[in-house]
Amino acid sequence: TINCDGTGEAPNKEAKLIRNLFCFNYDKSERPVKDHNTAINVTASMHVQNYDVSEEKSTLFLYVWMSFSWKDEFLNWNRAEYGIDKIIVDSSELWRPTFVAFHNLKSGNGDSACANHPCEVKQSGVVMCVPPCQYEALCVSNTANWPFDSLKCTMFLGAWLENFNQINISRMSNISTRDIEVNHAEWKIQSAILLHIFLPDNTSYPSLEYVFTLERHVAIYGAILTPGFCE
Known about the structure:
This protein is mainly beta. It contains 4 helices and 12 strands, in the order H-E-E-H-E-E-H-E-E-E-E-E-E-E-E-H. Strands 1, 2, 3, 4, 5, 6, 7, 8, 9, 10, 11 and 12 form a 12-stranded mixed sheet that branches. The relative contact order is 0.18. GO terms for molecular function: extracellular ligand-gated monoatomic ion channel activity; transmembrane signaling receptor activity.
């Protein structure tokens, strides 16, 4: 927590900078733009670390690092004055876009999908937050080629409070599964795509649609499909 009640000189230049940025006119409840007609460009990139599948619940559970980046017009400074390129600040001290995974809301953990985390603020005002998050995607199965069946799982992530006049989701947003170290014992992610959409019942609020295609590991059914040889 930033201490704005301190008296006297700050102990070092970083403490002085943080105090000057946050303790006077900064309001984390307001969008950080000097012209209220300006939409904030937010880049939202998902890095899948692990996943699990519940066939009973038709749900794909995703464990990810979400990278959110935007420019805060009130958090910039002269590097020559402080000799500092960036600072680390807890996410609770900053204005942040209110992105929510809509399927998580239905299961009751929409507000707690992402943990509190430190964020990086660069001297230009560019903010990057990379929280660990747990999301849920709803799945539809295709058993036409059983046991080589597949799942198509869909998840929606979108702005909860800010409309498209206030937030623009950058086309630089992406999704990556290359950080997965251990594949699921039974299901393998074959593809993951990201679409920029507006939900039909919420057309003023920008959203992202993630579509995952999973296939069942063939090796699991090798013993079933391959004749045994006893000789």
